[in-house]
Amino acid sequence: MLFLPKKMCYTAALSPPEGAGDAPLSECQFPGLEGRMFEFLGLLDCPHNACSRKNIPAIKVTGSANEQQIMTAVQVYSERPKMLHSALNHLFENAQNGEIKDLKTALLAVLDALERNFEHDNVQLAGSASLFFILKELLENEDMPIKLKRRVLSTLLDVISYQATENTTLRNVLLVICQFKIPDDVLFMYNRMVKFLVKVVLKENQQPQLSHFGIILLNALACSVTYQQKLILGKRGAIKKMLSLIRFGVIRSSYDELMEPMWSTLWNATDETEYNCTQFVDNHGLDYFKKSVERFSDKANLMRNMMGLLGNVSEVKNLRHHLMTAPLIEIFRDLLKSPSDGIEVSYNACGVLAHIMSDGPIAWHHLPIPGRNVVLEDMKVAIRQWNIDSQRNINYRSFGPILCLLSCYHTPEVTGLYGRWQT
Question: Residues 6 or more apart from 70 whose CB is under 8 A from it?
């Protein structure tokens, strides 16, 4: 049975338009239509595989026999959700198999379909799945214009604003976003992206796989960005959310694949950002640090990330008194001897103690045990044992914290030993 939309199907002249096909009309395989030519025939999902017949008497045809038919179907049915869903499913199959040649046209057709059908679950699911494979190939083979990238990313977040409870669609959207260069490609919508990740992806009782995507993206968003953008992470609740997730892992004494990237996100987000460091301390971050050291001290990457974060906190003068407790100082002293991850853990532990020492002897008066001189001696022993040829990859946002230590004349162990290692 033929589907002929009233507004799109016309009977043409007796002879076909130029380019309609090389075969004469007498070879038409549609009984009753011999000698006629239509502007459009809708054959998508018609019985007897009608769209695969030869010499279809129409200029435009919707169906599933080839890329052109599928693309026409996506374009023509953009406001007919049921038919559009079927067309997008066929497009997904072709895209998954790498059979789409005109990738840009396919991309624009899918974007148009998504933007016209935000409230239709099936369309969003099939469209976002198709988008993943189309973009995967498109981004690998050519540079996409910035304007088009921004349209794709904006549309994806619009999709989720309507489909926040549809986990499969959410997963598709996250997979598509992960194909872009983060944070560079999303800087134009940084605030909105952070809000989306914190409120939607990292909500309570979220599927672990979706939480993992959200944490990886938040970590990427915390790297190589400005102070103001890092501040957005704290203001939007990213620090609190990370600590809430870490708390569950610590309570269960369960080390999973999320633990390391969560601490890495906190490390990056607190870099020279006092507000975020304060958020970490105010939301029991130091308690979770102590418990994580107690339970997961054999995890080298985790220890490196946690001590890097504590190093950021120690650079904030107003927060250093929170670090000056006997249990924490003992942890730092123990980690001075750690061979974990080369010298990284020992180096970061020494950095935390160096910043505490930079406040001078007076700041230590309320902590008689362990004595300040004892800790300084521990630092000297650790520093002298570091391999001078150790390879380290360090990215400084500024030299402020280093210069602060180099001007610490009252404690030469800090300026003369550790301070020089930082320069």
Answer: 63, 64, 87, 90, 91, 94
> Residue 337 and residue 344: Cα distance in Å, rounded?
11
Phi, psi of 24 (to 5 degrees): -70, 155
Are the beta carbons of 341 and 306 closer than 8 angstroms? no
DSSP 29: S
> How does DSSP classify residue 186?
G
User: For residues 365 and 58, what is the distance between their CA atoms, to the nearest angstrom?
Assistant: 91
Question: Cα-atom radius of gyration of the chain, to the nearest Å?
Answer: 30
Task: Give the bridge partners for 60, in sequence order.
Answer: 40
Match 């030519």 to its residue by tokens.
37
Q: Contact at 8 Å (CB) between 236 and 191?
A: yes
Give DSSP secondary structure letters for 38-91.
EEEEE-TT-GGGGGGSSS-SEEEEESSSSHHHHHHHHHHTTT-HHHHHHHHHHH
3-state secondary structure of 7: coil
Which pair of structure tokens corresponds to residue 146?
Answer: 């910035």
pLDDT at 240 over 50: yes
Q: Supply the pLDDT for residue 419.
A: 55
Length reported for the chain = 423
Q: Write down the pTM of the prediction.
A: 0.84
Predicted confidence (pLDDT) at residue 80 exceeds the cutoff of 60? yes
Mean pLDDT, rounded, for 137-163: 92
Buried b (16+ CB within 10 A) or exposed e, 167-195: eebbbbbbbbbebbebbebbeeebebbbb
Q: Is the CB of residue 112 less than 8 Å from the CB of residue 126?
A: no
Measured in whole angstroms, how far is the alpha carbon of residue 103 from the centre of its chain?
24
Q: Which residue has the tokens 């008497």?
A: 57
> Which residues, 6+ apart, have CB-to-CB distance to 315 below 8 Å?
272, 277, 355, 401, 404
Q: Which residue, 324, 328, 326, is CA-closest to 306?
A: 328
Element (H, E) at 127: helix 121-141
Q: Are 270 and 306 in contact (CB under 8 A)?
A: no
Q: Are 333 and 376 in contact (CB under 8 A)?
A: no
